[in-house]
């Protein structure tokens, strides 16, 4: 084919452009040469380049879906240490990551646990796997989405804003706990949950299970109605583990050869005060300390 008249190649390029077949446009000369050399039947040549076009189309679609999903970078199932959360079954998560059995019926997933336990990581990693399997996902901090929906409501566009989110098979709402009462008053979150009920899936990460959700919705009846819809078809993971970061830091220190006897009770009042103000995060922020909440000690 390389010997074919230049005009043919140029015409073919134009045709392939018009037909929107960019992969074939790039690949055909090499495949044509190989087909000529190896005496492929025409049907084989055609199906090979068609397959390449299709594969390239899938790749581009996944790339687009990845870009729109706004997942936090680097959070994959491969890099998730399942041993750190023994209550979460890897097999179950892998089945969830395939998507088929639950996304089609709009079921939900709820991830609960204290800060640092890997909720956001697991949610993002499942989201990534789902996108690779052809689903559409949007990852957002709950506060950010609530703000956007509130703006839409003010502009009398709430319904269409919620409808636009329908294109996503899964909406990941990260950190429900940080929706403030102020934001809750307009109840946009409730409207979103109601609109997606039994149609489109939601995944929620939250530090507190339902007990605290009265802070999120305007009144107890609405909280109950929201929880009811969310849990009707839901898988709940309770990731009650200590902060992974803190554990990793302690482990790293151990591996540097520091004997465990260096573990010392230090500044208990400071730790207690921090724990009461903002439990785990504040502890993590204490300078020079790697603390184990459960064991109540710090390595200094
Ligand atoms: P949460 O959302 O529960 O507060 P994150 O998912 O943000 O916790 O986890 C805090 C940090 O620790 C992140 O950098 C995350 O990647 C890491 N991490 C947490 N749990 C695990 C785990 N089981 N395996 C690997 N990394 C983890
Ligand atoms: Mg998180």
Q: Judging from the principal axes of the Cα atoms, what is the shape?
A: globular
Radius of gyration: 26 Å
Helix content: 40-55%
From N to C, what is the helix and strand string?
HHHHHEHEHHEHHEHEHEHHEE
Largest sheet: 5 strands, parallel
Q: What is the spatial order of strands in the main beta sheet?
A: 2-3-4-1-5
**Average pLDDT number:** 83
* Parts with pLDDT < 50 across at least 5 consecutive residues: 258-300
| Oligomerization category of the chains in this entry | single chain
- Secondary-structure-derived class: alpha/beta
Strand coverage percent = 5-15%
Bound molecules: adenosine-5'-diphosphate, magnesium ion
Kindly state the number of beta strands: 8
User: How many helices in DSSP terms?
Assistant: 14
C-alpha end-to-end distance:
72 Å
């Amino acid at each position: 084919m390389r010997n074919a008249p230049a005009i043919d190649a140029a015409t073919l390029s134009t045709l392939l452009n018009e037909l929107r077949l960019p992969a074939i446009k790039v690949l055909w000369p090499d495949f044509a040469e190989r087909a000529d050399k190896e005496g492929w039947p025409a049907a084989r040549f055609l199906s090979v380049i068609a397959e390449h076009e299709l594969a390239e189309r899938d790749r581009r679609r996944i790339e687009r879906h990845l870009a729109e999903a706004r997942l936090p970078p680097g959070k994959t199932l491969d890099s998730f240490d399942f041993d750190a959360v023994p209550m979460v079954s890897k097999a179950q998560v892998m089945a969830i990551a395939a998507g088929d059995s639950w996304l089609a019926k709009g079921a939900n997933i709820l991830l609960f646990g204290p800060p640092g336990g890997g909720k956001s990581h697991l949610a993002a990693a499942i989201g990534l796997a789902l996108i690779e399997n052809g689903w559409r996902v949007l990852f957002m901090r709950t506060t950010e989405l609530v703000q956007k929906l509130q703006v839409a409501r003010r502009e009398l566009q709430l319904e269409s804003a919620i409808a636009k989110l329908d294109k996503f098979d899964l909406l990941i709402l990260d950190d429900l706990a940080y929706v403030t009462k102020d934001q809750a008053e307009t109840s946009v979150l409730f409207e979103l949950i109601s609109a997606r009920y039994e149609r489109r899936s939601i995944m929620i990460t939250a530090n507190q299970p339902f007990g605290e959700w009265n802070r999120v919705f305007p009144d107890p009846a609405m909280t109950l109605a929201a929880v009811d819809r969310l849990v009707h078809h839901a898988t709940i993971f309770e990731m009650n583990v200590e902060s992974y970061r803190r554990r990793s830091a302690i482990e790293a220190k151990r591996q540097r050869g520091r004997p465990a006897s260096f573990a010392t009770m230090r500044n208990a009042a400071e730790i207690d005060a921090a724990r009461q103000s903002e439990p785990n995060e504040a502890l993590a922020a204490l300078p020079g300390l790697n603390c184990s909440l459960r064991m109540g000690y710090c390595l200094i």
